[in-house]
Structures are given as structure tokens and as C-alpha cells.
Hints:
Blueprint: E1 2-5, H1 9-32, H2 41-69, H3 82-90, H4 111-136, H5 141-144, H6 151-176, H7 184-191, E2 193-196
Antiparallel strand pairs: 1-2
Helix pairs in contact: 1-2, 4-6
This protein binds protoporphyrin IX containing FE (HEM).
Amino acid sequence: MKRIYIFKRFERFWHWSQAALIITMLVTGFEVHGSYDLLGFKTAVTTHTTAAWTLVWLWVFAIFWHFTTGEWKQYIPTTDKLKAMMLYYLTGIFTDAPHPFKQTRLSKHNPLQKLAYLFVLAVINPLIWITGWFYLFYNDWAAWGIDFLNLEYVAFFHVIAAFMMLIFFIVHIYLATAGHTPTAHIKAMITGWEETDD
Ligand code: HEM
């Protein structure tokens, strides 16, 4: 096994703070939705709104960081080894087959990860973000002249995006434990150092 430094300090900070905020958004959001009663509706709404503002600022900062460091290129999709990765996750992972993708500092995501993260960045985040903003400023719709919008549709698409985020989150946790040991990838996101085949 060889150790390579993959995740820089800001990436690790961004990853874990985003994880904490998204878990907060899921827990409070589904309480607002009426799925259960945990914090009480009012606290759920205020926590959801505070975490939303924090998350929005974190995303703005993360976008800035990705463009100034050139790290955005890590998300350019590729079909190279895509089929091999799918087969690996369908069968290879259960038979201890060698991993088809070799992680390097310049290419730290496998082709399936690239597609999944791009989907989050280009579809789920904008949908949750835009509908969230409309939801947040509902009281200003008339003043802004956009009261032809329907809150029910805004809420519907916000919840659809929340379910997509929940599915991503569950798959992400499963795959995070699919390294050469169940905690290898998680440790790498804490220390920055990933262990790969020599
Ligand atoms: C991972 C991110 C997020 C998740 C999982 C999430 C989830 C949810 C869910 C499930 C609801 C209940 C909707 C309903 O039943 O009508 C909700 C409500 C809401 N969300 Fe989000 N949301 C997220 C991000 C955001 C963002 C970024 C904003 C603002 C920019 C936002 C603003 C709101 C507002 C204002 C409400 C309505 C609260 C109320 O009833 O007063 N959300 N969210």
C-alpha cells in the first residue's frame, strides 16, 4: 500500500461542514414537511433557515475555491473506465476484484463519482437552492411581482430535490465504506491521505 495526499485542508473542511449542514437540512426539512415531530415545528423552521444561509455561504465560498484552484476540473465527466466501474460496483466489490480506477492527486474521483457529483452540483443543488430561495422569500413575492408563482409547486420541487439529496446521501455513505477497509475512505477524508495499491 502507498499513501498519497489527496484531500487538501479546505476540501476536508468543506466536506465535513457540508455533511453536517446537509444532515441538519434533511432532519429539519422533513420535520417541516410533517414526516415526524422531533424539535417542534417552529425550531425546525428556524434551524432549517439558519442552516440554509450557512450552507449557501459555504457553497459560494466552495465554488470560488474550486475555480481559483482549478479543482473544478476534477468534475469533468468521462466515459473512460465507466463500464468497468459499474461492473466493479455490481460484482467485483463482492469478489475482492482489483479496483479498476487508480486514484491520483490530479484525478481523485472515479468516473462514476464524477457523474454522481456533477449530478449533485448541476441538478440537485441548484434545484434545492432556487426553490429554497423562493420558499424563503414567499412574503416578498407580491412586492417583486412574481406572485403568479404557485407555492405548492415550489414546495413540491423542493421536496423532490430533498429526496434526491437523501438518496445521494445514503448511496454516498454505503460507497464511503467500500474502500479496502470499511473506514479507509472516511479516514482519508479526515487526514487527507488515501491508501492505494502500490
Ligand atoms: C440539503 C438541503 C435541503 C434539504 C434536504 C431541504 C429540505 C426541505 C424540506 C423537506 C422541506 C419541507 C417542504 C414542504 O414540505 O413543503 C423544506 C422546507 C423549506 N426549505 Fe429546505 N431543504 C434544503 C435546503 C434549503 C435551502 C438552501 C433553503 C434556502 C435557501 C431552504 C429553504 C426552505 C424553506 C424556507 C422551507 C419552508 C420552511 C417553512 O415552512 O417556513 N431549504 N426544506
